Amino acid sequence: DDARIRASLPTIRELLARGARVVVLASHLGRPKGKPDPALSLRPVADRLAELLGRPVRFAEDCVGEAAERALAEAPPGSVILLENLRFHPEEERNDEGFARALARLADVYVNDAFGAAHRAHASTEAVTRFVPDAVAGLLMEQELEFLGRALERPERPFVAILGGAKVSDKLEVVRNLVGRVDALLIGGAMAYTFLRARGVDVGRSLVEPELEPEARRIEEAARGRAVAFELPLDHVVADRLEPDAAIETLAVGDPAIDGRLGADIGPRTIGRYRDRIRSARTVVWNGPMGVFEIDAFARGTLEIARAVASVDGTTIVGGGDSIAAVRKAGVADRITHISTGGGASLEFLGGRRLPGVEALADR
């Protein structure tokens, strides 16, 4: 998937067009645990980037030290250099000042275009900004902050948020923050079952976080107090196991026939109810699938929500890997206003947190 590479192209092209002598690119891939891993080298990224840019991309065998500095010294004007995986050094994730200084030696201007890493205080996103004359946001970072910021601060209404995925704990801050800002909050995925059980509903073997049931009740009470439409599934697809060949059945939520089984997708009544809410919206933010989306038998709810979001006459923002995959699988990605490149970063932003990678910039 080259989506994040493509998303960075406008900034790289702008820097070259504005006369940058060399554009030095730094990034990471995977979790190599602070040591080199050939399977996580960025060399294939350099090859793909060269194809997309239509010009050579030089590859430095390391991101700091002699290899990086030699690549820079040998680069002719107008070059693009991609450094090797930043996370091959443990100092990157430790936000180490010495490592940040070594990165800063490679540049006169620092441009952070990695919204997807902006929630991490790492050497390449936070400490490095202390050692360069200028530290600014790239075009993608600007776009991400503009769309998400507008949704939170000055949305066109009705404003509908759709949250799914496995756990309430993953999105607790987001739910709390959005309850005070949206007109309707639609909950799907396994996280719905903690809210349902907090209402006293029998959810069988569905995934529940019992320790969060009191918080779930408080969130619902807060939604009622603010006249926010807080929607939970009315029916669901249940299965004896989460496998492609599982025996499935659609039941009303609360039907005792769920006994021994677990919820795996929202049902047709819920799809209809959520679709109506979404289609009346002028601003929609969606993060997280409505079911076990990777198994076709449990994908319908997520795909139908994707199509409903694409039909909105207004601003639509989709974030999170499964939601993005859903709009692509449904063939509607080109009808979404903004597809966020930052899963964790967009969640923390929507949860009201400050992002270290943004706070470190001159125009924070």
What does this structure look like?
By secondary structure, the protein is α/β, with parallel strands linked by helices. The chain contains 14 helices and 14 strands. The strands form 4 sheets. The protein has a 6-stranded parallel beta sheet with strand order 8-7-6-12-13-14, with helices on both faces. It is elongated and about 70 Å long. The two termini are 30 Å apart. The mean pLDDT is 95.
Q: Into which percentage range does the β-strand content fall? A: 15-25%
What class, by secondary structure content?
A: alpha/beta
User: How many β-strand runs?
Assistant: 14
Spans of at least 5 consecutive residues with low confidence: none
Largest sheet, in brief, is:
6 strands, parallel
Shape: elongated
> Into which percent range does the helicity of residues fall?
25-40%
* Number of distinct helices: 14
Order of adjacent strands in the largest pleated sheet: 8-7-6-12-13-14
Mean pLDDT: 95
Written as H for each helix and E for each strand, in order along the chain, the element string is: HEHEHEHHEEHEHEHHEEEEHEHEHEHH
How far apart lie the N and C ends? 30 Å
Rounded Rg:
23 Å
Describe the structure in brief.
With 364 residues, the protein is α/β, with parallel strands linked by helices. The chain is built from 14 helices and 14 strands. It starts with a helix and ends in a 5-residue tail after the last helix.
